[in-house]
């Protein structure tokens, strides 16, 4: 789906680009009409490239690791005390969200996290930062491994949840300044 949306965006942007062509001089005629000379020969055609309004192109990729954290609980029964003792562990307690800037201009990414009210889990989620982060331009970078990026980490509390539920929503706001 992301590839389709990226392709559609590139196609729309390519279709909106234009090349302005201007006549260098007017061939006689009244009221702006052109009259071609009657003699045979070459008629000079001139084009002028107006690149003063070169467009900035934006392409941002956002990749994230799984934000579904699973707590596996085991219960051990002690035959000597007749007590069942629960214990457990998480598959992971953090995941990264990475924003890649393939644009020919600098962009800024600002992450935020909002807890889901009354989720009943007893678990809180957090981000490593909520600061606006500058991601430099990719113009001129040919090695894709050097694409400018910013990585944000979502972490959860390492304790037993009370229930299975969504505990938070993460948002990455992108801006050009």
Describe this structure in words.
This protein is mainly β. Helix content is 8%, strand content 34%. A four-stranded antiparallel beta sheet has the order 1-4-8-6, with no helix packed on it. The protein starts with a helix and ends with a strand.
Oligomer: single chain
Helix content: under 10%
Q: Can you give the mean pLDDT?
A: 79
Number of helices: 1
Q: Name the beta content range.
A: 25-35%
Low-confidence stretches: 14-39
Secondary-structure-derived class: mainly beta
Q: Main beta sheet: strand number and arrangement?
A: 4 strands, antiparallel
Topology of this structure?
Blueprint: H1 2-16, E1 60-64, E2 71-78, E3 83-90, E4 94-101, E5 107-115, E6 125-127, E7 133-135, E8 149-156, E9 168-175
Antiparallel strand pairs: 1-4, 2-3, 4-8, 5-7, 5-9, 6-8
Name the descriptors.
single chain, 9 strands, mainly beta, elongated, 1 helix, three-stranded antiparallel sheet, four-stranded antiparallel sheet, 177 residues
In brief, what are we looking at here?
The chain is mostly beta strands.
């Amino acid at each position: 789906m992301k590839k389709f949306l990226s392709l559609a965006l590139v196609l729309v942007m390519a279709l909106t680009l234009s090349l302005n062509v201007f006549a260098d001089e007017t061939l006689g005629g009244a009221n702006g009409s052109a009259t071609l000379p009657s003699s045979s020969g070459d008629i000079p055609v001139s084009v002028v490239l107006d690149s003063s309004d070169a467009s900035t192109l934006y392409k941002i990729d956002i990749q994230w690791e799984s934000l579904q954290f699973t707590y596996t609980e085991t219960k051990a029964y002690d035959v000597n005390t007749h007590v069942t003792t629960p214990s457990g562990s998480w598959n992971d307690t953090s995941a990264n969200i990475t924003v890649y800037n393939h644009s020919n201009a600098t962009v800024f990414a600002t992450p935020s996290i909002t807890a889901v009210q009354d989720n009943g889990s007893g678990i809180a989620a957090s981000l490593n930062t909520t600061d606006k982060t500058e991601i430099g331009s990719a113009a001129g970078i040919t090695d894709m491994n050097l694409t400018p990026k910013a990585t944000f980490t979502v972490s959860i509390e390492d304790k037993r949840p009370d229930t299975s539920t969504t505990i938070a929503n993460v948002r990455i706001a992108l801006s050009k300044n």
